[in-house]
Design goal:
- The chain is of the alpha/beta class and 256 residues long.
- It has 2 domains: 59 residues, no CATH class; 191 residues, 3-Layer(aba) Sandwich (Rossmann fold), CATH 3.40.50.300.
- The protein has 11 helices and 6 strands.
- The longest helix has 28 residues.
- The radius of gyration is 23 Å and the shape is elongated.
- It comes from Saccharobesus litoralis.
- One of its GO terms (molecular function) is ATP binding.
- InterPro entries: DNAC/IstB-like, IstB, IstB_ATP-bd, P-loop_NTPase.
Amino acid sequence: MNPIPELTPLLKQLRLSGMTDSLAMRNREAIEHQLSYPDFLALLIQDEVARRDQKKYATRLRRAGFRGNKTLESFDLNANPNLNRAYINELADCRFIEEHVAVLIAGPCGTGKSHLAQAIGHCAVKKGIDTLFFTQAKLLSNLHAARATNAYEKRFQALAKVDLLIIDDFGLKPLKSPQDEDLHDLIDERYEQKSTIITSNLDFSEWGQAFPNKLLGAATLDRLRHNAYRLVLEGESYRKLRENNDHTGLGEKSEK
């Protein structure tokens, strides 16, 4: 007598769909290889765990809000011979998240800053780390909208507590009040508690110019720079290089 038809609805009732999907296959495998009952059960449990892990990963990835499939695998490292791969791999390992420090990425438009930031974010998501990606404009607009609906504190805390927050295109548009205060409060709340990745077209020495209140800007940047990993991408626009099929001229410097 085949018990599988009777087991399937019971497994679904227990929300063990991973076992349901592979039950017949694992049953054939157990018969063919004469597996013991514990070994057979272990395979079914592994299938269920794998299904749940994949579901959690898909949820984290969707919630992160990345722009397309900007992964480390899709970034053409071979086209950038001066890029410090060991440094990139160190960041991709996500130890900086355990250290609760920032990663600051600067360089001209089109040199791959946003791609690398999101690629590191993808690595974090794969490790089970909750991640959110925003442009500076989108982030501050999000907070402004929350303030207008009396949901500011709830939204602020969600941003403050996420393990990895990626802010793209910092300084692309000058900050206005209360945007500079919102950004300062967010960075201050995350300081030495969570990790933040920030990309900017501005040189590091120019970041303070984005703040109308220079004192507030200095305080914000002081917290970001403390023990931060820094990455500078140099050269022509990567987009232009791809269009011309000329993969030369993109360099990188790094320091911690």
